[in-house]
Amino acid sequence: MTVLVTGCAGFIGSNFIHTWFAASDEKIVNLDKLTYAGNLSNLAAFKNDPRHVFVQGDIGDAALVARLLSEHQPRAVLNFAAESHVDRSIHGPADFIHTNIVGTFHLLESVRAYWTNLGDQDKANFRFLHVSTDEVYGSLSASDAPFAETNAFEPNSPYSASKASSDHLVRAWHHTYGLPVLTTNCSNNYGPYHFPEKLIPLVIHNALAGKPLPIYGDGQQVRDWLYVQDHCRAIMRVLEAGRVGETYNIGGWNEKPNLDVVRTLCAVLDELQPRADGQSYAEQITFVKDRPGHDKRYAIDARKIERELGWKPQETFESGIAKTVRWYLDHQDWVQGVTSGSYRQWLSTQYGG
Questions:
Q1: What secondary structure does DSSP assign to 44-98, as a single string?
Q2: Across the strands, what pairs with 226?
Q3: What does the alpha-carbon distance between residue 204 and residue 335 come to, in Å, rounded to a whole number?
Q4: Which member of 58, 134, 230, 255 is catalytic?
Q5: Which one, of 12, 1, 191, 2, lies nearest residue 85 by Cα?
Q6: How many whole angstroms from its chain centre is CA 165?
Q7: C-alpha–C-alpha distance, residues 236 and 234, integer Å
Q8: DSSP annotation string for 274-297
Q9: Which residue ranges form the domains of the chain, and what is each CATH number?
Q10: 8: buried, middle or exposed (CB in 10 Å: 19+, 13-18, 0-12)?
Q11: What is the per-residue pLDDT for 349?
């Protein structure tokens, strides 16, 4: 048996492959375009592993996807491929439209053609699982109930709008063509192999380098934090037992303001790798101009996946953060490998130097 996964040289996708092979010997064909956030060193452990077949390519390349589907005959396709950084989508939305909307369309069409020609039993067993985000739902006030699967989409950034569009396409291909789809919408992930443009790895990287720890606005934007390996286990459970056509929200039950997250990171670093001058890393916290249209609060109601599929997160925020900081301290060579000159130029553009 084989599954085809897309975008698995990135953060969540590479963690998925690590989590998958810890539990299964089923082969994965990994299609990834290797954009700036895709990094084959994330998958170095599987370089010579016959269970993992890596193919560099675009989900929008219909001929390539058709060839891979025909050659490997997967029982499922999991779509992690996406441009996923809000700040980058504000500065350059075109890539997000191309990958998240147009790319998903082409992938759906390639998969539909493959699925249509399967035998009856294989056709019934096949699944297309689309990995998405809670940002499609928009923003919450402090008193609002967490996002449920029935919430209307109200995306506020080019990134979230492009992901909402892709979610709609997946739903439409199920209702119009009968393609057996599953969709997951997750909250903010953190953990190993996270590209250091996002809050948690950026803070760890800057703290250790003695640089400012930039926090947008007043730092009171609230997010629900989900340890990435908990997310991967949830995706595996949805693939295994999710109801066709359904959406499952995946959250960590860990709502935290960004400022509290940064202070927690500083406290863990103070314990594990204290500053030479004896001061706390919290001394490096710096408030910067807020980004345009910054959503105030995200929160996930993850009761459906727990009720129907028996999944709930294994990690608390405290245990997950401790594991994350230890991983970055133990993998400084990986960090150095991804923080290239282009990355430093991005930081200068985004945070004013």
A1: GGGTT-TTEEEEE--TT-HHHHHHHHHHH--SEEEE------HHHHHH-THHHII
A2: 189
A3: 10
A4: 134
A5: 12
A6: 17
A7: 5
A8: --TTS--GGGGEEEEPPPTT---B
A9: 2-189+227-253+294-315 (3.40.50.720)
A10: buried
A11: 60
The rounded distance, in Å, linking the Cα atoms of 45 and 131 is 24
Contact (CB, 8 A) for 223 and 256:
yes
Residue 255's Cα: distance from chain center in Å? 18
Average the pLDDT over 47-56 and give the result.
95
* Residue 278 contacts residue 255 (beta carbons within 8 Å): no
Q: Which two tokens stand for residue 52?
A: 């993992």
Catalytic residue among 114, 159, 248, 351: 159
The β-bridge relationship of strands 213-216 and 285-288 is parallel
Reduce the DSSP state of residue 332 to 3 states and report it: helix
Which of the two residues, 320 and 292, has the higher pLDDT score? 320
Structure tokens at 89: 């989508």
How many helices (H) and strands (E) the chain has is answered by 14, 12
Q: Which of 235, 217, 239 lies closest to 293, judged by CA?
A: 217
Please tell me the predicted confidence (pLDDT) of residue 346. 45
**159 part of the active site:** yes
- Tally of CA atoms within 13 A in the half-sphere of 240 that contains its CB: 14
Beta bridge partner(s), residue 188: 225
**Residue 343 pLDDT exceeds 50:** no
Q: What digits encode the pLDDT tens for the residues 154-177?
A: 999 999 999 999 999 999 999 999
Q: Of 32, 58, 83, 135, which residue is the catalytic one?
A: 135
Helix (H) or strand (E) holding 184: strand 181-186
Lowest mean pLDDT among 169-178, 291-300, 314-323, 338-347: 338-347
